[in-house]
Amino acid sequence: MLIASLLLLGIAALIHVYIFVLESVRWTAPSTRRTFGTTAETAEITRGLAFNQGFYNLFLAIILAIGIGFLAAGSLEIGAALAFASAGSMVAAALVLILSDHTKGRAAAVQATAPLIGLILLLVAVLV
What we know:
This protein is mainly α.
């Protein structure tokens, strides 16, 4: 269970690094604008907000990666605390996204699925 959890949590971290790249590096690129459904004008106006939001995603990914490292090294308590805090925040952010805009269900699912399943498997691994 622990290995499956670590793999899914690793995928979650990578997804959030990708989101960071989209929001903080490529926000005004045409492909990114298509992904987020924004116009060139809107992307330019919201560039600073997206830049900041992208770094939140990067920080969550970094904290999760550190947690995965601790878990892989056998430090269950520290690793689980970091994983639950960061991946739990990823899931919570996805809930906020879907509750604030029902048209963003696909994006919320992409953002939440790997961390949610990873945390469930981690919980089973820790309790067994």
